[in-house]
């Protein structure tokens, strides 16, 4: 395919600057986003085994729920019944809520003892997976605009630039795409190898990246989009359902059995598994039941489930994210559900999650390698002396990228140890992450990009290695209070941490070679770490 050289240069320039502008924020979003694919496993791993109370047999949830209403009258406003064997059968927020990332949420858990009497306990909510999701959605940018984090809007702008970078990169690669797609030319130097790897990952996962870019823009600015659509739809609901209901106050005693609610849901959404029922405003004029249903063979609105909203007294379904062919969801509801499902990867089961995890890490590599390629290109133009802007960008790239990875690894490494203290674990998570993140940035500018890239990778590996070593301590010293993995999901988190540690050590070995034996005028060369003899040899 023949394209004029001046057009290619223009698209290459657009690709470079949009990628450089948005790349560091998107690295954090993609690295954390890859981990969110296993958010439930992370929560299970970070939560002590005795945190959840014993599940009750099907049929006993009604008995438990009635006792909860009698002992805690305020629960008629908001209470959740769970059928998950790894969850407490009934729970509700004593402070805080399930929306967003909160540092001081407290939850009451309830179950029945052997005599059928109510047992309840107050626990802090471990928000480790929510912290990871917060970083994924906002890149850790602190502050709020309206009802959402400021970082969500900033990341939305970055995703728009990212989409432009994808399109422009594809265009200027078209002439050489066929002959160089699978080429990884190590013999032509490190820069060519990085460029080939960057292009391969980018083109191979292009559909995934386009999906993520578009959906992030939609999620970030959905209020504006909905506002625009409301000008067309007027008072008609965008997502189906009928908002005009007769206002009737009900008594809790008239609440149907949970089995009746379950049967209504099963009739409405056959093939879906009911995981929980959240009951709200039971004595208000607008009582509701939000039923979480799971089908990994189809798109889901949430990261882990679909939702069905109904009146718990009349069993009338108001609206649902389940596509069941009755048209109740509405056209825009189907469109929005598709956007959510494509972004969350909430389809395809475990295989789908692993693919999104791998492609998420590939996306983080794409942004990091893009900055390295740009810095190398600048180095070749400058030949001998590196400009202050190049050194600044190198330190910023290493500091932000490794800093976010180190911060996340640090929260995992500290998690089980923090449970031994009286600290609010969620506030402690924030201190650990941001302390390590900003320490990494300061270290990168103080030590320089070359030296800190080595120090940072070793630090990351050490923190990842602490995760399985902590469990080993718990196994060898059971009285410490540290628990050991008790499920496949728990073992998966520990194995993942070990793999990250090994990958960090392998990368550190390669970086060390470049720091000691790289080209003298390279940003990644550190003269102080080499002998004067080696320096003379390089200069010669």
Report the uncertain regions.
229-234, 238-243, 529-540
Oligomeric state of this protein: single chain
**Radius of gyration over alpha carbons?**
26 Å
Strand order of the largest sheet: 4-3-2-1-7-8-9-10
The dominant shape is: globular
* Tally of helical runs: 17
Q: Report the mean per-residue pLDDT as an integer.
A: 80
Structural class: alpha+beta
Distance between the termini: 43 Å
Overall number of strands: 10
Topology pattern, helix = H, strand = E: HHHEEEEHEEHHHHHHEEEEHHHHHHH
Total domain units: 3
* Approximate helicity band: 55-70%
Q: What is the beta-strand fraction?
A: 5-15%
The description of the largest β-sheet is:
8 strands, antiparallel
Summarize the structure.
With 540 residues, this protein is α+β, with helices and mostly antiparallel strands. 58% of the residues lie in helices and 10% in strands. A hairpin with a 6-residue loop joins strand 9 (306-310) and strand 10.
What can you tell me about this protein's structure?
- The protein has 540 residues and is of the alpha+beta class.
- The protein has 3 domains: 1-51 and 126-238 and 330-382, no CATH class; 52-125, no CATH class; 385-540, no CATH class.
- Helices cover 58% and strands 10% of the residues.
- It contains 17 helices and 10 strands.
- The strands form 2 sheets. Strands 4-3-2-1-7-8-9-10 form an 8-stranded antiparallel beta sheet, covered by helices on one side. It has a two-stranded antiparallel ribbon with strand order 5-6.
- Strand 3 (106-112) and strand 4 (118-124) form a beta hairpin.
- Helix 1 (5-36) packs antiparallel against helix 4, helix 1 packs across helix 12 (349-382) and helix 2 packs antiparallel against helix 4 (128-138).
- The longest helix is centred in the last third of the chain and has 34 residues, at 349-382.
- The two termini are 43 Å apart.
